[in-house]
Amino acid sequence: MSSPLFDTHAHLTDPKFTEDPAAIVDRAVAAGVGEVLALGCDLPSSEAAVELARAFPGRVYAAVGLHPHEADTAWPGLLPRLRELGADPAVVAIGEIGLDAYRGWSSEANQRRLLNAQLELALELGKPVCVHSRAAESDIVGAMTEFARAAAERGIPVPGVMHCFGGTLEQALPFVEAGFLVSIAGPVTYPKNDETRRLAAGLPARSLVIETDSPYLPPQGMRGQRNEPAFIVETARAVSAARGMSLEEVAQLTTENARRIFCAVRAEATGR
Ligand SMILES: [Zn+2]
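That is the input. Now the predicted structure with zinc ion docked in place:
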């Protein structure tokens, strides 16, 4: 495989990663991963993601955001700092943001408010979003379509990524139509998960990206272990089997899509 892979969603600052981040990055590179997007889900992890992106330029990028699980906390006071972080040139997206009706760890109304505040922030900063939607695909599609329209007006080339999409191909299509990328994670490798393989097979080529969501959701061959960016190869392989494409073609395609959303933002921010 000569084309590098792009892991579009990793929680590299999660406490489960106890070793030197350079070791994680080295293993990723050795496995064929060229770039990783490190996501924040609260203020400390967002700050840490920015630090990491600064430490590994061109290899690790950062996204900063408050996860829907944070929606019942006193988050309005955190927005000024989040805005400051979001403006950093190492930050290529706002995320992880979204709605989670599955865990229900915070109220639906507060989740909505938090999501809307961060969509506004993304527009203000001219950056795309990384969206978590669990058991909320039909609830969130309106807000995302509206955001995509505003993002296009703002000159944001791709509005965002629907991360670790857990819905069906039919549920994904409205997001695709709005211009979103749809990200496939480790569950595509699970024997019972035919629905995700059908999704991976049916998405338009220009809409497909891949991720680990590490340290969570290890692919089948690594189940029971902590996931990490190097393990994305198994996910890429499952996507290539589902689509009847070579691994090389999947690598090329998904990395090109990821770079179209994240690296365009970066090029603009740094004036290159
Ligand atoms: Zn995540």
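The domain at 5-270 is CATH 3.20.20.140 (TIM Barrel).
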